[in-house]
Amino acid sequence: MSAKTQLQTSHQASAGAMGTEIVLDVGPVAHGGHCVARHEGRVIFVRHGIPGEKVRVRLTDAEETAKFWRADVVEVLEASPDRVEHFWHAADSLRAWSHGHPPVGGAEFGHISLARQRALKAEVLAEQLRRLAGVEQVPGWAGTSVEAVGGASDGGNGLGWRTRASFSVTPGGKLGMHAHRSTHIVPVREMPLAVDAINALRLWDIDLQGIDRVEVAAPANGSRPLVLLAPAPGTKPKRLNAVAAQLPGEVSVASFDPATEAVQQLRGRTWVHETAAGHDYRVTGAGFWQIHRDAPGALVGGVTKFLQDGGFLHAGAVVADLYAGAGLFTAVLADAVGETGSVLSVEGAPGTSRDARKNLHAAPQVEIVQGRVERVLRQKPRNFDALILDPPRAGAGKAVVRQLVDAQPRAIAYVSCDPASFARDVGYFRQAGWDLSGLRAFDLYPHTHHLETVALLAPRD
């Protein structure tokens, strides 16, 4: 770039022209899958870079009045030793922008070595705990990395772990995925993070006209996959059946409404059969289940070890599984407390709660309740030995934390998929006289910025 061009580019960037390219030094990693850089005093959140690199970026969100801008790396001028070739062309920012379009979301760390990915995720978690909860150190957690999961099943390369995948559809009826924070849909012909059973469906070869969204679930146990089709407004049943007919005969197919999660059978079952921790589970439609093929075992192991080692989970114990989903933790808790103990299992989603009833019908010590966690705890007070808390990404929140503390359990095992909401809630617990006494962090989403934590919280002595 000539000096004149560089001067023009800098002037355009000052004016906030989206699409402008500028050169930046990449700063520290931040929560959300980006790093922090600065240009003329303004913060720019940069995706697809690595701390310490010098890069050329394209501004993707640059309103003049905005507090910060967003940008994608389009050229690496000085590379980090941890930079690797991206495994997926569609998600490779450098390659995508060289072809005139943004990369798909969902693999924003694919240009970073796995070891550095895990170190960066630990940095984010530690920073969130310091900033939002005032926690500098956690007993038993070094804070330098997150734990790898599934090396035996993914070959150690962080690929082939997703048992669930969500796709959009291009205007021409082809399988695609959205670019990050964009309505732009990029056609895809592979999903390297997905298990083989999802790629084997070859959804990219199917005419998906009349469909807005496609959700796929392929259980890690190899049982029958389920494809969910979200029809576009006005799509007729005949068109849905025509799409279903293009799929392999052994695959279950259903239509679904993303707003209500209502599912209607087109062929086969409207649910999948999952296996974890010695139990079988039925999970209906788009009902929640851990995405990584080895996540259920890793999380169950983390939770039960914390609770059992602390003397909170044993025969005869009184426990609760909150935001219980289809009952992954509930079944394991029922085994641990036996018929002399009791398990209160609470889930807000009606369909998923029905799954839990089916999955736990043979366990008399389990009570399944569908409803809001804070309401159920008020209505069914018990002297809890322990609670398991596995809320959605938004976390539990102040009101729920207050209700949990008022329930006076001896301990709480908190499972979280978001370090920011987790740290915020830990702050609420600390204000109420509780401490974070144990923490494990798992890399259940390789090549993305996401991570999962299992924490033990207990009243302060």
TrEMBL record:
Belongs to the class I-like SAM-binding methyltransferase superfamily. RNA M5U methyltransferase family. Residues 15-75 form the TRAM domain. Keywords: Methyltransferase, S-adenosyl-L-methionine, Transferase. The active site is at C417. This is TRAM domain-containing protein. InterPro entries: MeTrfase_TrmA_AS (IPR030390), NA-bd_OB-fold (IPR012340), SAM-dependent_MTases_sf (IPR029063), TRAM_dom (IPR002792), U5_MeTrfase_fam (IPR010280). It holds the Pfam family PCMT. Transmembrane segments: none annotated. Gene3D superfamilies: 2.40.50.1070, Nucleic acid-binding proteins (2.40.50.140), Vaccinia Virus protein VP39 (3.40.50.150). S-adenosyl-L-methionine binds at Q290, Y323, E347, D390. PROSITE patterns: SAM_MT_RNA_M5U, TRAM, TRMA_1. PANTHER family: RNA M5U METHYLTRANSFERASE, TRNA (URACIL(54)-C(5))-METHYLTRANSFERASE.
